[in-house]
Write a structure and sequence with these properties.
The chain is an alpha/beta fold. Helices cover 31% and strands 23% of the residues. Strand 14 (344-352) and strand 15 form a beta hairpin.
Length: 437
């Protein structure tokens, strides 16, 4: 009789507190990677600079990758995908989800995090909504789009094939002198480095997640070779130093106004600067990684928050800055904004123990990012909240009202007015408030 009462109490607990019971289940994970470097025959353009005029890449300096981490506690699963790319157009993730629906995947269960390399695939070349044939913003390439979507689907499926019990731990600290604010009207810097160590239950390194905030822009518009920029070098070096087949996965933060600071004596070559920066940062990460304590059965929660966006508009400075670079007129903008800038967006969030990744669908300014991280820590108790910049889609730069009114390049490429920053930050925080351990 006593055993029956205990079993009934356990069953009631599962019904009344499903999320907490699922979080306590054994957490498993699997990883996979796939080469995203397009064949030269695809004539894939590099993104990030309008003056390239949609010219195809001339070769490969270092290959670009997508890497997937699939997590599962049995009933639920989640895919975190990092990629050495500039960004993703709003139509990209829905197509990936559509093709994975038969495998039990939904939009809530997937987060895509581009590193924001400016020597990678042009975002608008893989944007079906881009029908304007303007070289400065990139011309849609259906073959390249299909190639990229298929590879994202493949890498998620591959990561799900071999799940193993894991242990996990996270650490954060500030590292001064690695980044700076590139806007003249601000000195705000987010110099926090956050590292998550994921090992198999047997102690073998499985994955390491690295979050640091800086534009991968060592190479300018004249650089016409594919490269992951400094994040690519960071990941390769980290995988070599840690060894044992570990998968290093970098994702950016609120990098809207954050630039990297070249390491001393890096030389005049931007390629050398990018490589040295990535390699030296990897050594910092590896040293901290070695001291991270891990534990099994950590909190595992996720959520996708829908956010209604403000009215679409362009900044008064646009024609003198972004408009000039991208060859756009006010007449073109009247056609483009309704077609290429969505009326709503999402903010995805993932809780893994004390790590909380808050997905932001664009380039958030660092001051807003710091505010979101501080408030998320209070709301959830997660000791290591981070911004996942450019998550799932790129909608624009995301600034405070003051920074928007101040103008400049970032403000000119912000397409929802001065309230966008508050709208996105409030929506993101609404999405994480229930992700408590």
């Amino acid at each position: 009789m006593k055993r029956a009462v205990l079993m009934l109490s356990f069953a009631l607990g599962l019904l009344l507190c499903p999320n907490r019971s699922l979080s306590a289940a054994e957490l498993k994970a699997g990883t996979a990677r796939i080469d995203l470097t397009p064949p030269m025959s695809m004539k894939a353009p590099l993104g990030g600079y309008g003056e390239r005029m949609n010219k195809p890449a001339e070769g490969v300096h270092d290959r670009i990758f997508a890497k997937a981490l699939v997590l599962s506690d049995g009933p639920r699963k989640f895919a975190l995908v990092t990629c050495d790319m500039l960004g993703l157009a709003p139509a990209f993730k829905p197509e990936v989800v559509k093709r994975l629906a038969s495998d039990g995947w939904s939009a809530e269960q997937i987060m895509l995090l581009p590193a924001h390399s400016h020597t990678s695939i042009e975002m608008n070349a893989i944007n079906p909504a881009n029908t304007f044939n303007i070289p400065q913003i990139g011309i849609h390439n259906p073959v390249l789009y299909e190639f990229t979507v298929k590879n994202f689907v493949k890498v998620i499926r591959a990561a799900e094939q071999h799940l193993t019990p894991i242990r996990l731990g996270t650490t954060s600290r500030k590292i001064e002198g690695w980044n700076r604010n590139r806007r003249r009207d601000s000195k705000v810097v987010d110099d926090e480095l956050t590292i998550t160590r994921i090992d198999t239950d047997a102690g073998k390194p499985l994955a390491v997640l690295v979050n640091f905030t800086a534009h991968p822009t060592f190479m300018g518009a004249d650089a016409m070779l594919f490269s992951g920029d400094w994040p690519g070098h960071l990941q390769r070096t980290l995988e070599a130093v840690i060894g044992n087949g570990v998968t290093a996965m970098y994702f950016n933060g609120a990098e809207g106004d954050q630039a990297p600071v070249a390491r001393p004596d890096s030389g005049p070559s931007p390629w050398e600067r990018a490589e040295r920066y990535g390699r030296e940062l990897a050594l910092v990460v590896a040293k901290d990684w070695a001291h991270i304590a891990t534990q099994p059965d950590v909190a595992f929660e996720y959520h996708l928050q829908t956010i209604k966006l403000p009215e679409r508009r362009w900044h008064p400075d646009f024609m003198a800055t972004g408009g000039k670079e991208y060859g756009l007129s006010e007449e073109l903008l009247r056609q483009m904004l309704p077609q290429m800038s969505p009326p709503k967006t999402t903010s995805g969030a993932l809780r893994l123990g004390d790590l909380l990744i808050i997905g932001i669908p664009g380039e958030l300014a660092s001051g807003l990012g710091l505010q979101v991280k501080a408030q998320a820590k209070e709301l959830t108790g997660a000791q290591h909240p981070v911004i996942g910049g450019l998550a799932n889609e790129w909608i624009s730069y995301i600034l405070s009202p003051k920074a928007y009114r101040a103008g400049g390049y970032e403000a000119s490429v912000s397409f929802y007015g001065e309230t966008l920053g508050k709208t996105i930050c409030d929506g993101a925080l609404a999405g994480v408030k229930d992700l408590k351990e």
